[in-house]
Amino acid sequence: MAYSVAVAGASGYVGGELIRLILNHPDLELKTVTAHSNAGQTLSSVHPQLAHLQMNLVETKPASLNGHDVVFLALPHTQSAAIAGELDAVGLVLDCGADFRLESSERWEKFYQTKHAGAWNYGLPELTLASGGKQRSRLSGVEAIAVPGCNVTAVTLSLAPLITADLIETDDIVANLTVGTSGAGKSAKTELSSSEMSGNLKAYAVGGIHRHIPEILQNLEKAGAVELNITFTPVLAPVSRGILAVSSAKIKASPEKLTEALHDAYHDESFIDLLTDTLPETASVTGSNRVQISHSFDPSGRITVFCAIDNLVKGTAGAAIQSLNLALGLVEQAGLGQIGIRP
Fold first, then answer.
1. Extents of the domains making up the chain
2. Active-site residues: which are they?
3. Mean pLDDT across the chain, nearest whole number?
4. What is the DSSP secondary-structure string of 313-342?
5. Cα–Cα separations (whole angstroms), residue 107 to 48, 83, 114, 124, 242
6. What is the pTM of this model?
7. Nearest to 161 by CA among 268, 300, 32
8. 151-309: what fold?
9. Which CATH superfamily is domain 3-148+313-328 in?
């Protein structure tokens, strides 16, 4: 029996990517797609590649979503909480926005300036925990999942195992990320003129104000960090999708121990590739749920970890599907086998 699925916010980048993955999933059946300003239009009018579905976008409201086995909320930040509060007769809800990621109301209100709606089970299965094991063990059978932020995923997977093993200093972490324009969302991308981004790199949300910072802090604290400080700088690049994260920290053990810690954490992970002879590239993970990670050491006594992901797949939609599989007791890799689309 297939699970019936609704995607709220289907007209956006994440919504379109969710649909692509749902159609490839053997246990999911797409029943409803919703939108706000695009309600009433055909799905193909916003995602021409999905013309074969012949579906119409209906208004995003609880009545359109209730009764489905699975509901994905692919809505702008701070808009999921109101909808989620009115959902019933839904087996599993996954929020691809930020509304339920943070456990601290103080951090939420500082970075989002709205009332904290609470925290859901966090959908990053590979996150190593100071208490033992990984976040994966906390997703089985849950009914609500907060999907991680894309930049957060890249930085967390780069550093968490080293923190859990107590091998790096956490008071001077530096993370610089090069991010594709889809990471800003469809509405934001339409405001970027071609002349502004063509052949151009542009830093944004600098100086400790990026909304992914408190989520990174939360994850690294769960991994075991104390006295945590991070300098986080995202740079918008003239590519449609992908994130290359370059994160560094001072080491407090031999390079061999750090290499071993990354291997121990990830050698058996289905979606993480540890590279030894090459550096990660976004083109190598485009369209897939894969993560490429490698690292290097330099005379300054720091480790630099390189991580490449597709921000729309492992950074959002793929993470949602992977977490759904765990929550429903399905094969974790189900629906995530396709690799590569044109960047």
1. 3-148+313-328, 151-309
2. 150
3. 94
4. IIIIIHHHHHHHHHHHT--TTTT-------
5. 39, 22, 11, 20, 27
6. 0.94
7. 268
8. Dihydrodipicolinate Reductase; domain 2 (3.30.360)
9. NAD(P)-binding Rossmann-like Domain (3.40.50.720)
